[in-house]
Structure formats: C-alpha cells, structure tokens
Design a protein that fits this description.
38% of the residues lie in helices and 14% in strands. The chain contains 12 helices and 12 strands. The strands form 3 sheets. A 7-stranded mixed beta sheet has the order 2-8-7-6-5-3-4, with helices on both faces. Strands 9-10-12 form a 3-stranded antiparallel beta sheet. Strands 1-11 form a two-stranded parallel ribbon. Helix 2 packs antiparallel against helix 9, helix 5 packs across helix 6 and helix 5 packs across helix 8. The protein binds pyridoxal-5'-phosphate.
Length: 355
C-alpha cells in the first residue's frame, strides 16, 4: 500500500477478469470467447496496415467503421459511438449520464463490472434480486430510477428478455435511461437497436469480442439518439480521443463486411450449445435456458468448486462466481463440438467417480 494512494484506490474492489493462462493446452471455456478465429477478411485487414499508417494517429471519429455499422443497422452515423471494447463504453457511460445523487439499478446477478464502475465514479446503485428462477421481474425496479442497466441476454445466467418487454419498460419509464448491454445478443436474443429511433431513453451497447471473434482487438459500440452519443463523445474527448487504434478500426470494419462468416460461426455455436444443453441435462445438471454463447448450470448435490477444480485438473477452464446465490453454478462457454465433447466426457466421469 503506497501512502500516495487516493481514497478511491484505497476503497475500491476492482473487477477480476477470467484467467488467461499462458499454457495454451487448456480448453478455455472461462471467458466467453469465440472458439472460432476472426473472419479471414478481418485478418487480411489486420495485415494490411502499413508502417506509414502506423506512424499516424488513428481517425478519432472512427468514421469508416461507423459508416459500415450505420449501413449494417440502417442508422445514421451520429447514432453510433465506438470505444475500446464495450467495457470502455460502459466506463464512459457512467460519467456521461449520472451524478453522485442519481441511482442506477441492475440485477444482483449480472456482469460484475457494473458495480465496479458505479463504485469508481461514486454513483449509488441498487442491485435488484433476480427472481427465484433467475429471470428479471421489472416490477421489482422502483419507478424513480435515473437508470436501469440490463445485460440481454444476461450474464452469467444466459437468460434473455424479449424486445417487447424492454419496449414496454421504455414507455412505462420515459425518464429512466434504459441501457441494454447486448454483448451476447447474436447468439439468440432480439436486439433493441431499432428501438433507439423511437425512444430517446434507450442506449444499446454491443461488442465485437463475442460473436465477431475480436476480443483481442477491443472494439465495443453504443447505439442511441444523437444527444446520448454526444454525451459519450464528450467524456471520451475529455479522457482519450484515440481509443481505437488503426488496426482495430480496419479489422472491425472488415469483420462486419463478412456477413457470411459471421452467420456461419454464430450458427455453429448455437447448434453446439443446443447439443451441450441436452447432454448436460442428461448427465443430471440443471441448465438455465441459454440465448448466449455460454451455459449456466449446476449439479444438484455437488459442489460447484469441486466440479470446477476437477475440470481444471483435467485441462478445462470454466468460470464460477463465489457469491452466495450462485457459488454452486458454473458458467461454461460454448467451444467447438470437440471441446464440448471433452468437457461432457469429463463431467460424466466426475459424476461416476463421485457417486
Ligand atoms: C455482459 C458483458 N458486457 C460487456 C462485456 C465486455 O466486453 P468487451 O469489453 O470485450 O467488449 C462482457 C465481457 O465478458 C460481458 O459479459
């Protein structure tokens, strides 16, 4: 502990990312990465960056990529913000829209970065318990909130709410900013990006880390009405105007142009997930309905920590959150068919050995 630490550093508990082992022999199903490589068009774009281009600062407006995103979603470019991963977009969203007197609410079980940012910016937050079955019941959220933040599908539960349910809330709470984090939307939920045109209290956040296989490049987006986007730009330009490097800008654009590859890999993951869900249930796991590239499951009567350790000892990493409601649950990222076959083989062995 340095005597120079600020009160923030002294008091905050930072987010702990999933392990990134140096030993590549692990089957890595702990951070919801895509098991397939980035689009060959994105890889070609990475290689296309010249020394001359690297010499210069990247485009602070990220205009080429935003134009591609605008065409893809049928929006105007001033409705789109791009940042260094959706974590950064989230980090800019807090100071852009909230004061220390505002309250932001999100489920008690959700992406664990949300409360960390709230603590960093000293924004009061309410963690509203999910229902017994891990679904969101909007009636549990007070009407006086400045903001409601929802991951859809939620993480780590993988459960989605419909666009219709979200639109009902947008209408019911016109003075609440509803932020929908759609990191996993392409694996089975319905995006509410089209609703941003009709509702000025909606901000949608997405990422290229999951369905686009670009976690290593760090590209995240926000979609909303132009005033909301300008708020994010104001924070970015008060912090770091060049958050997205030239390689990431070009590869992200190429990735969006390769629609066929995106569809092929996304569908492959969904198909593998459906097989994995059935197989886990057959082994005896309770599995929540998944609209994401991961499944959330528990084996009644077995310790989550023990199952996780058994998998780790046998070369498979999965994620577990050591909080009271979900400590017996595992979040298993969907890998390739072969990787899932290996996990399922190990889980069958675990059950046999521990009877
Ligand atoms: C719900 C959710 N939102 C945002 C992120 C951050 O994604 P990135 O910063 O890679 O865009 C994650 C990553 O796991 C996530 O699970």
């Amino acid at each position: 502990m340095s005597r120079f630490y600020s009160d923030t550093v002294r008091s905050i508990t930072p987010y702990v990312p999933g392990e990134q082992p140096k030993d590549r022999s692990f089957i890595k199903l702990n951070t919801n990465e895509n098991p397939y490589p980035a689009s060959p068009m994105a890889v070609a774009a990475i290689h296309s960056v010249s020394g001359v281009e690297a010499r210069l600062y990247p485009d602070p407006e990220v205009a080429d990529l935003r134009r591609t995103l605008a065409a893809y979603h049928g929006l105007e470019i001033d409705r789109i913000f791009v940042g260094n991963g959706s974590d950064e977009v989230l980090a800019m969203m807090y100071p852009a829209f909230f004061n220390r007197t505002d309250t932001i609410a999100f489920p008690d079980i959700t992406y664990s970065f949300y409360p960390v940012y709230a603590a960093l910016y000293e924004i009061p937050f309410t963690a509203v318990p999910l229902s017994e079955d891990f679904t969101v019941d909007f009636r549990d959220y007070p009407n006086t909130l400045k903001a409601l933040l929802l991951a859809n599908p939620n993480a780590p539960t993988a459960i989605a709410v419909s666009a219709g349910e979200i639109e009902a809330q947008l209408k019911l709470r016109p003075d609440t900013l509803i932020i929908v984090d759609e990191a996993y939307v392409d694996f089975g939920a319905e995006s509410v990006i089209p609703l941003t045109r009709r509702h000025d209290n909606l901000l949608v956040i997405q990422t290229m880390s999951k369905a686009r296989s670009l976690a290593g490049l760090r590209v995240g987006m926000a979609f909303g009405n132009p005033e909301l986007i300008r708020g994010l730009e104001c924070i970015r330009d008060s912090f770091n105007s060049y958050t997205l490097d030239v390689v990431a800008q070009r590869a992200a654009k190429a990735s969006y142009e390769d629609v066929a590859y995106f569809e092929q890999t996304r569908r492959a993951i969904i198909a593998t997930r459906e097989k994995a869900v059935a197989a886990l249930a057959a082994i005896g796991f309770t599995v929540l309905p998944s609209s994401a590239n991961f499944v959330f499951c528990t084996m009644p009567g077995k310790s989550g920590a023990e199952v996780q350790q058994y998998l780790r000892d046998n070369g498979v990493l999965v994620r577990r959150f050591n909080t009271p409601r979900i400590k017996e649950w595992l979040r298993i990222t969907i890998g390739t068919d072969e990787e899932m076959d290996e996990v399922l083989r190990l889980l069958r062995l675990f059950v046999q050995e521990k009877i």
